[in-house]
Amino acid sequence: MTLIVIVIVSISAAVTEWLEGRSIQHTVEDNVRDAALAVGRSVDQNVLSLAQLSNREARTKELEKILSNLPDLLNIVLYAFPPDSGGNPLPITSAGPTELPRQAGAPALVLRVREERESLIDYADRPNTHRVFLAAPIFLKGAVVGATYAEFSTLQMDDALESLRQASRTRRLLTGSAIVVAINLFLYFKVHRPVKRLLTAVESVSQGTMTPIVPVEEQDELGELAGRFNDMVEKIRAAAHDNVQLTESLQAMNDNLQLKVSEATAEVMQKNRALAHTNELLSAAQRDAARAQRLSAIGQMAATVAHKIGTPLTALSGHIQLMAEDSTLSAESRQRLGTVEAQIERTSKIIQDMLLYARRPEPVRSPLDLKACVAESVALFRPEFERRQIAVVTEWSRQTVKVDADVQQLQEVFNNLIENAIDAMPAGGTLVVRVSSRDPLEQPDHHTFVEVQFADTGCGIDDEQLAQIFQPFFTTKKARRGTGLGLAIASETVRAHGGSINVASETGKGSQFTVLLPTDGGAR
Asked: How much is the pTM?
């Protein structure tokens, strides 16, 4: 507000000074104009004929008399215009320190007088030279026959005007300062202090203190505002007290409700856990029932097929063998008989696998050195590795890996996985065999497990086939190279031992089968 007051006072003073300066300047210019025009009229009235205008001595005395009577008149020159309107004015005489009579040409202001036929005053150069220039016509019988040229000094008037302006500025500065001080004192005592007290009280209320009371000193707008504020604080204090009581009541109700909700939640969670356990048992029972039903169906089918087809196949195989002993048969016929006998053996193998899958006996567990069991399977296929140009890399655990398992059934599982790896690398490759122990802390039931991995660099298995490789009769091998029961039998065997088989594969980069077995043989 102080700055606003200072700005308003400063603008008012500046505008007043500008208006006053303009007024004084116009007054000075009017006085100078009157004095200059008086000089021009005086010369014009004393020239009654061309002879008088040409009388140099009389005109000189007249000009010197005028110069002595006017202290601000610097010089005065008298010009005569020739009859020819195109001729240059001729200086007749002058008074005062001037060089004009000796100049070849008259000032431009004199030339304009003959054209405009009236007195002319030039103020243009006054700020720099403190001079005003006058050119007044001399008339005879209505014609301009000459001109009076005079220069007036405005230095004294300009100095007086500047002094007047300085005094006016000082007076306005003092007056403006007094106005600013008076307004600020009024604002401080009548506005600032009451507003400051009110703001302090508002800040206290905003911080939670409901006790401040603003004193009401005067019955003006600020006094009315302070009274309204005090009433508002009193109402807020009463409302806060009611809110505290309501909050305490709500808190007690909330605590009671929270306790009941916690009890109900605990009961629901206990029931959910019991239900989840029941669902898990039900799912396991359903899986076992489905598996048993599937195995039963396969067993019945395998038994029926074995009974209906097994005996005829055996008879056919015997007849074919007898026919093959005939020395009169050609080589092509013997080859065809060999093909028929191979297909009969393959059919018999499928029937035997089906019977084995459906009627898998329970494992006969005994302590087993797993590394020796895996090494025996690898040694069994060593000639095939050399023939197929497959490099075998073995990584054995430094510790002795013992499991309680059926050695014959596990041997069949490992042989099946190695055979699948060989079939996946027809152009050669690398087979990595690892045997290691699992940390019991990594298992959900904290049992000790061992791990056997078979990683090949073969063709791999795509995602769609990967989800079905443990299903019975599903195979990724070419026609006549598999029955689709090898991995299914291996999965059931490992499951009977309480373990699991996992597979990871990427097309074109190979597959990795991991057999996870508990050391106790899956005992519960």
From this structure: 0.39
